[in-house]
Specification:
The chain is α+β, with helices and mostly antiparallel strands and about 200 residues long. It has helices spanning about 50-55, 90, 95-110, 150-165, 170-190; strands spanning about 20-25, 30, 120-125, 140-145. Helix content is about 30%, strand content about 10%.
């Protein structure tokens, strides 16, 4: 599917001082000027709604039929050597030279003005903390930062599920499936569940 540039798409209403506007017909805030300045922090909630963006497979690095890919090194039998080790996600996270390139391509496919790039993160659909593949393109998609469907909210349930898996309260495969199928539902299901994971003993050496 070929997407027309944003500047060519019809809309009602004029542009604000940032070269952007809120299209009430489709519920998106987007920019038309190539050099548009980034709107102030208070406009973040007017950025394109993630559910609008993610309906289109062109904002993903691969097709929705292959959504989510696992790291073969992370299994239920290896969690104590992988995701349950402090600093694991940092050790496997791809370099920004890679992730920024993928993010730029996905934004181009979605017709999103680079001026609002900071509104989005490149999200691991199955998180690294739950054994998602770090680099496979079908485990990467754009996600807006703010709001009920935003990355900041998803990050909280990722941390909680990692804790529940490492404490033995939830199986790894269950956590992976639930966050893949519907992370918002997983948030409501597990957000208030107390994690019983023991803290690591202090290193006295």
């Amino acid at each position: 599917m070929v997407l027309a540039p944003l500047s060519a798409q019809g809309h009602g209403g004029g542009l604000d001082k940032y070269g952007c506007h809120h299209n009430r017909k489709i519920g998106e805030y987007h920019c038309h000027r190539a050099g548009a300045a980034l709107p102030p922090h208070g406009r973040e909630r007017e950025a394109p709604a993630p559910q609008t963006l993610l309906q289109d497979s062109t904002v993903r690095a691969d097709t929705l039929t292959d959504r989510g890919t696992l790291n073969p090194n992370v299994t239920q039998a290896t969690i104590t050597q992988t995701i349950c080790v402090p600093g694991y996600t940092k050790s496997v996270r791809p370099a920004t030279s890679y992730t920024n390139g993928v993010k730029r391509i996905l934004m181009q496919r979605a017709g999103i003005n680079p001026a609002v790039a900071s509104y989005y993160e490149l999200d691991h659909i199955i998180p690294l903390a739950l054994g998602g593949h770090p680099r496979k393109l079908d485990n990467l998609e754009l996600q807006i930062w703010e709001g009920e469907n935003g990355a900041k909210r998803k990050d909280r349930i990722e941390v909680k599920l990692q804790c529940l898996v490492c404490s033995g309260q939830v199986k790894l495969a269950t956590a992976q499936r639930e966050i893949l199928d519907n992370w918002q539902a997983a948030y409501h299901k597990y957000a208030r569940v107390k994690c019983h994971r023991q803290k690591a003993a202090p290193n006295r050496r």
